[in-house]
Amino acid sequence: MNKRVIPIVDYRQAVSASKAAPGLPATLLPSEPVGLLSDALGRPLQDLRISVTDRCNFRCVYCMPKDVFDKQYQFLPHSDLLSFEELTRVARQFVAHGVRKIRLTGGEPLLRKNIETLIAMLAALRTPDGQEIDLTLTTNGTLLKQKAQALREAGLKRVTVSLDSLDDESFRRMNDVDFPVARVLEGIEAAHAAGLGPIKINMVVKKGVNDDQILPMARHFKGSPYILRFIEYMDVGSSNGWRMDEVLPSADVVRLISAEMPLVVADANYTGETAERWRYADGGGEIGVISSVTQAFCQDCSRARLSTEGQVYTCLFGSQGHDLRSIVRGGGSDADLAGFIARLWGQRGDRYSELRGAAQATPARKVEMSYIGG
To answer: 115-123 and 84-96 helices cross at what angle (nearest 10)?
Structure first.
């Protein structure tokens, strides 16, 4: 069998080269944080997603397919990654500008050695009005059973677990490393016992691959302490071979579940929430659907993303990061960092999902989800 080759652009090369560049960007503008920033479309900066590693122990077909991310794939050297101290320094400036929630992602974030230390450092941050931040983490659950208690003790508030099937054969096929679903379920239970909640379970639905698991997942988690969310298969990056005909619209998911277990729409928890919420009519909990393909929510997007080696992305579907590491390692002050963030967010006009399919919306390359996190 011939090996499938999917060319992907190494968007990390530019930032690696920047290590040798002395000084700070000429366009850097100091800006005193005022606790609230708005972008060019009036959207506030409220959420920061930090990728702490580009490595993962799964090879999911929609994210890190094995024929691209094989044994020869060159992951970032440890020296390129922002240290915990550097990440915390950067996060502090984002919080000063209005960020209220920080989510740690990957790759698989629990692969980052001593991640509990970083969590403790971030948990100590406070908003300008003295409030704690909402500190959470997304994981595939493989290491959750071992780490849940330590994560909670370090200050993590809750977790989101990616789980695309309850059928063991299907799950092993999707993660492509023969990992059993039972161990992920054990990790979820351990996280609940440790007090990391409410726990959200994310299922990426790919038509013809795991859509037969929608009802089994809904039945399993109905009446549990967990919130199940169904995510439309997205065109993030270029390595997953995304096609529109493999997207199952969230509206179809809701109709399928409601036909057996009636659902009623629920109000959003907050402005900019990515998931549309539905409650079981009999009081058996809730589900969520995330519809960034068929029902774009760009108008309320308040999220910035920081890659593991210091590139800031203002859109999940972005093609170009903005180099923050050169400021951190080039002698820049906190005021320089604050100015960088303020200028970048103030110029932000991203709305890829609203324009999906239009010529002007399709970049020549897009950042991989495995690099920047979901």
So the answer is: 30
